From TrEMBL:
<feature type="transmembrane region" description="Helical">
    <location>
        <begin position="137"/>
        <end position="158"/>
    </location>
</feature>
<keyword id="KW-0472">Membrane</keyword>
<feature type="transmembrane region" description="Helical">
    <location>
        <begin position="215"/>
        <end position="236"/>
    </location>
</feature>
<keyword id="KW-0812">Transmembrane</keyword>
<dbReference type="InterPro" id="IPR050039">
    <property type="entry name" value="MAB_1171c-like"/>
</dbReference>
<feature type="transmembrane region" description="Helical">
    <location>
        <begin position="99"/>
        <end position="117"/>
    </location>
</feature>
<feature type="transmembrane region" description="Helical">
    <location>
        <begin position="36"/>
        <end position="56"/>
    </location>
</feature>
<protein>
    <recommendedName>
        <fullName>DUF6545 domain-containing protein</fullName>
    </recommendedName>
</protein>
<dbReference type="Pfam" id="PF20182">
    <property type="entry name" value="DUF6545"/>
</dbReference>
<dbReference type="InterPro" id="IPR046675">
    <property type="entry name" value="DUF6545"/>
</dbReference>
<feature type="transmembrane region" description="Helical">
    <location>
        <begin position="68"/>
        <end position="87"/>
    </location>
</feature>
<feature type="transmembrane region" description="Helical">
    <location>
        <begin position="6"/>
        <end position="24"/>
    </location>
</feature>
<keyword id="KW-1133">Transmembrane helix</keyword>
<feature type="transmembrane region" description="Helical">
    <location>
        <begin position="170"/>
        <end position="195"/>
    </location>
</feature>
<feature type="domain" description="DUF6545">
    <location>
        <begin position="238"/>
        <end position="355"/>
    </location>
</feature>
Length: 377
């Protein structure tokens, strides 16, 4: 009972991953490969389940239902292999790898149908002869082993060379773990099947030649977890970007009201498609440009130390510029220019947190920019 619940939870998780990948689908080669592999794997899980596969089994028989489920799994393996190749070689990955991977998988799928063609009607594959069951399992396992060994080799060499850092390092570790899981499980099933065949036992029938639904759920769910990790990280970055924009908006609004020339104007139809990360970047750029415009009203033309004092003198500069006063200094923000994007964002947010308490007068309406278009909820 517990195992059945876990299997259903794993299947549900895979379909949630499919939905998330569909909503946030990409257009790059590796992203398309991930999407295709996840869809094939998810449908394969449904067909391997008695609840969903029984209707198909009534039409084509148990052997062909297993063939279809296993073929979908192999096509998922083919697209994961494409993903690993593209991941390993980047833009230098051969353009024909998709055709070769899918074509090679198709050959193995046809072999599965040929091996099971002599089975009596309504006979499951594992109830055929031991030799046929072993041959079927062998053809099914070859693509899985190729993916497992190649994926583990790519992940291991990438980690050894130090090619990936930060979150990419965890991706490498996850891919290596997935490859090991796939390889160990496949070898274990093969070893059990051939041991029974050599011993002359009839127990090969006990080895499920469709790789075992429970094990398949585990492998596909592990792959789905890797597939949605970029989506989850991207969603977290966008949520953080919207949160930063809410904190920056009062200061951005006041600064751009006195320096509207720094605002990037967008066409109306482009505003709805503005990404939060891009909008945050534009907001920081516009704030920085507006600070340069009003910088002549800063003491000595420079920002002092400390975010509270920086917010105070910057608000005073905004008021002076709004009153039309002549600049008394030449803006000097040379220290500000060397900041990294992350350090710049941290500085601006720290200043913006002190901004509402300064009660800068409500400015007139400003032109719609990329930053203003992507308003946080």
């Amino acid at each position: 009972m517990v195992t059945e619940i876990l299997v259903w939870l794993g299947t549900a998780f895979v379909w949630v991953a499919v939905a998330l990948r569909f909503v946030f689908r990409g257009t790059k080669r590796d992203q398309r490969a991930v999407d295709c592999a996840l869809v094939f794997g998810a449908v394969s899980l449904l067909l391997s389940k008695r609840t969903f596969g029984s209707a198909l089994e009534d039409v084509v028989g148990p052997a062909q239902r297993s063939n279809l489920s296993n073929s979908l799994t192999l096509f998922a393996v083919g697209f994961i292999l494409v993903l690993v190749v593209v991941w390993r070689h980047g833009d230098d990955a051969p353009r024909w790898i998709e055709s070769v991977a899918v074509g090679g998988v198709a050959v193995f799928c046809m072999a599965l149908f040929v091996i099971s063609a002599d089975l009596p009607e309504n006979t499951p594959i594992h109830e055929g002869s031991d030799a046929a069951s072993a041959a079927y399992l062998s053809f099914y396992s070859v693509p899985l082993l190729v993916l497992a060994f190649y994926g583990a080799w790519v992940a291991a060499t990438a980690s050894r060379r130090g090619e990936f850092v930060g979150t990419r390092r965890w991706t490498v570790a996850a891919v290596f773990g997935f490859a090991v899981l796939l390889g160990v499980g496949t070898v274990a099933v093969l070893a059990a099947a051939f041991h029974e065949l050599v011993s002359g036992s009839d127990a090969v029938a006990a080895v499920q030649t469709d790789a075992g639904p429970d094990y398949r759920v585990l492998v596909v769910a592990a792959g789905a977890a890797i597939a949605i990790s970029p989506v989850v990280r991207g969603g977290a970055r966008r949520w953080a970007a919207r949160r930063h924009m809410r904190r920056l908006r009062p200061m951005w609004r006041d600064l751009t009201s006195v320096a509207p020339e720094v605002v990037l104007r967008l066409r109306r139809r482009d505003r709805v498609s503005v990404d939060a990360l891009y909008a945050l970047h534009r907001m920081c750029v516009e704030i920085r440009d507006a600070v340069t415009v009003v910088g002549g009203h800063l003491p000595d033309g420079r920002l002092p130390e400390g975010p509270a004092e920086q917010a105070r003198v910057l608000a005073a500069a905004v008021r002076a510029h709004a009153r039309g006063e002549e600049p008394v200094h030449t803006a000097d923000l040379s220290g500000y220019d060397v900041l990294s994007p992350e350090a710049e964002l941290h500085l601006l947010v720290a200043i913006a947190d002190h901004w509402p308490a300064l009660a800068v007068a409500e400015p007139p309406a400003t032109p719609v920019s990329a930053a203003g278009a992507a308003r946080a909820p």
